Structures are given as C-alpha cells and as structure tokens.
Amino acid sequence: MINYTEKIPNNVDLGRDRVLQRALEHWQPAYMSWWYDMGPNESHNYDVYLRTAVSVEPDGWAQFDYVKMPEYRWGIFLQPRDEKRLVNFGIHKGQPAWQEVPGEYRSILRRIIVTQGDTEPASVEQQKMLGMSCPSLYDLRNIFQVNVEEGRHLWAMVYLLHRYFGRDGREEAEALLARRSGDTDNPRILGAFNEPTPDWLAFYMFTFFTDRDGKFQLCALAESGFDPLSRTCRFMLTEEAHHMFVGETGVARIIQRTCEVMKENNVEDPSDVRALGVIDLQTIQRYLNFHYSVTLDLYGSDVSSNAANYFTSGLKGRFRETKLDDDHVLGEAEYPVSEVIGDKIVTKKVPALTALNERLRDDYIDEIADGVGRWQRVIDNAGVSFRLTLPRKGFHREIGNFAGRFISPEGEVLTQEAWKKHEIQWLPSAKDYAYVQSLMSGRVTEPGKFANWIAPPVRGINNQPLDFEYVRFN
Ligand code: BYC
Hints:
Oligomer: single chain
Bound molecules: benzoyl coenzyme A
Number of helices: 12
C-alpha cells in the first residue's frame, strides 16, 4: 500500500532515508510553485473528480474523489521488487539486476532519465490553456487527470535523480522545473514537446500519438537492468493507458460528430461541413499528419550509436524484450532501415544494434495503424466515403535519415519547391488552426452538455452518468 500519512506519499519507505526525504521536501515547494505557474490556468480552486493511486497492485489501485489539484497526492510509487530479476539483454545479460547505478553508466543513465523526466512537465505546459475552451465537464476532468499524472511522472524521475545521482541529480531535478516548453532560451529537450497544443483536436491527437511514444519508451525503459528505473516505469505505464484512451476516444468522438452532421445535411465539401460548425475530415487528416510525423521524430535517428550503447550496456531494452525470441545481445543480427538515394527511398540492412530506435518506431507504427483503423470504422459505419491514411515514414521529418528531405505523404521524393506547393493540403495551416479555434472560443460547463463539434462519450468516468458534475468551479 501507499503511505499517505507522510508529506510525500510513497511506497519506498522514504521515512527511513532522512537525507533523501529532506532533499525531496526541499524540491517539493519548487514543484508547487511550478504547478501554480505552469499548471492548468485558473484551476487551483476547482474541485475535480480525480483518481488517485492508493496501491501499486494491478487490481483496484485507484480511488476516485473530488480533489483540488494543488492538493493532489503526488508521490513516489514503484512496482514491488522481484528479488530474482536479472539484466535480460546486452553484455551483462544474466547478472542480477542492478539496485545501484553502475559507475561506468552513470552519465548516460542520468541523460535517459532527464530526457524522460523533461517530457512530463513539458506536456502540462503545452496544455495549460485548454481548460478555458473545454467541450464538456467530462473532457475537462480528463485533461486535468492527464495533467496531474504527468506531474506525478515528473516526481517519479525526480525521485530517481535524487536517490541515485547525488548533487548532479539534484541539479538536474531543478533544471526540470526551469526549462519551458517552446521557450527560445531554455526549451524542453525533445522537439515535439516545444510545439504548441493550441486546441482540443491537437490535444486529443497529442494524447493519441505522443503519449503513445511515452508508452513505448516507458516499455523500453521498464526492461532496464537498472531495477529502480524499471520498477518506476512499470507503475507509470498503468497510468499511461488512460491518457491514450482520452486521445483515441476524443478523436473518434470528433469524427463521429462530423460524420453525423455530414449525413444529416447531406454535405461533403469541407466548406459546407465547416459552415455547420464541425471539423471537416480533411482537417482531421492534416492534424493526424502533423502529430504522427513530429512524434516519429521522438524515436531519434534511424541509425544511432547512442541507442546501441543503451542496449549493449543493459540500460534500455526493446519493446517486450523478454518476450522476444533471440539472443538478446544482437551481435550478428541485421535490421532494415530506409534512406533517400537520388530520388528514391531505398531500404538496406544495417546491424540491428544500431537500428534500435527504428525498430521501436516500427513497433509503435503497428499500434498506431490499428488505432487509425478504429477511427476509419467510425467513418465507415456512418456511411461516409473518406479514407484516413497514415503518411509514409519519411513525410515531414526533422530527425534521422529523412531530415532535410522532402517526402510526400505517399512516399515520393520531391524537390523543396514541389513539396511546399502541397504543404497546405498536407499539414494544418494557420487558417485551419484559426477555424478549429473559432469553434472553441468558450467552455461548455453545464453537466451533461457537449460542444457541437464533438459527440458525447459512450459512458462516464468510474461508471458515473454523463451529466455528473465532474468539475465544480467554486
Ligand atoms: N528532438 O542518436 P540520436 C513521454 C537528440 S514521451 C530533439 O538520434 P538517441 C510523454 C538526442 O537527444 C517519451 N532532439 O537519438 C509523452 C541526441 O542528443 P545528444 C520520452 C533529439 O539518443 C506525452 C541527438 O539528437 N522518453 O514520455 O538514440 C506526454 C542524437 O541522438 C530528438 C524518452 O524519450 C528529438 N525528437 O535517442 C508526456 C526516453 N531525437 O545526446 C510524456 C528517453 C533525438 O547528442 N530518451 N534527439 O545531446 C531516449 O531514449 C533517447 O534520448 C531518444 C533519442 C530516444 C529520445
């Protein structure tokens, strides 16, 4: 069980480590000041129907109640330790999993933890203003749930930094509260976390696409031979599922509402669809193209010696590493990677060790394709003829082999000029953003009411009815 009697809720017996406890109690006010500053706008006095983790057991770990977000019980929760756990891949395969940081890997491990930790507050910053234009109390509650849990994921990484990395770790923990999403002088580390999330369609796309990168990266880190990182990530993954649910169902509900309106009014042209106050499917496709491509960049370069080092040293595994049927060392194995040669995309085999970013990206793409297939079924079931497609991997990329290349969504290699001509068909334009935001100029706060541009969900949260008062504004 989680101990909530302490100032910092935890299941790591924090009370017995006075030095660590003091260090974290010192960081806590800085975190709260960041939350007041960068957390959801004007929300500090709201009562929000939130789930809080009460145990780390898979069944019944959460409790639902009204909470003011600044009073949310952020804390440190690790999956229980398996005494027999081993390092399962790389050159240390078969050794007992490490309970302390191996000296030779200290700086790369710190770098991985900092990169992971940096994304969590970044996403809260990106979503700061969205509560002001929520389509319903149900959706408002969901974004707040996502935000407090991202805050907790920051706590998870900060615990590791404080507990295992001494003074360097403390400095990194402070820096995590100092960087700001989109700031020109002190931005967040990874590209997608400096992009704005200006409206609710962008928010749902972000939680579908980018939170799912979170899932895959956390799965890879959950395989780590450094056991405290593995146990932390395993618990974070239990929270991540709801975030992706919010994204997938959010986009599905927008699509459903658009299709209903198209059918009722017998219209297909995007401008006619817009005139009826819903988001045309073409715009949804452009948002999809954007969020998919910037999220693909988050996996890093297709061929990466960093990724090879992480794996060889036993720090970061593959997706479902222990379920894979090979030697888990990858000394001889190869993996296909694409690159542009002349005006063609060609695929060649490279040592699998160096292609681990690409492999994780491919695992991710498989899961994304299934989700997009489920959105397509909403369109098909409504009897609308429109196909949502995933662009080819090289489209609109800034990291890896496709960076600086101009690839169409269908995978043709173009000149910059030809590509630019089509950009407004492929990616959201300023006009698209302006239109979507014009639908979201105020918030819908009457229990059970939903904005015109989105269908209600199938059911409420924790079996509550749809007209439940999920947020009280006080
Ligand atoms: N933007 O060999 P390379 C989540 C840098 S999301 C900017 O290509 P590597 C969440 C890279 O850092 C999951 N820079 O890549 C979701 C490196 O810099 P240094 C977050 C980039 O190192 C929603 C250089 O380029 N977790 O949790 O193999 C809401 C060359 O590196 C980018 C993680 O990412 C980019 N897109 O792999 C809330 C896991 N890509 O070191 C939360 C931890 C690369 O030369 N991170 N660079 O200065 C990692 O495992 C690795 O850092 C990466 C990059 C996979 C990201």
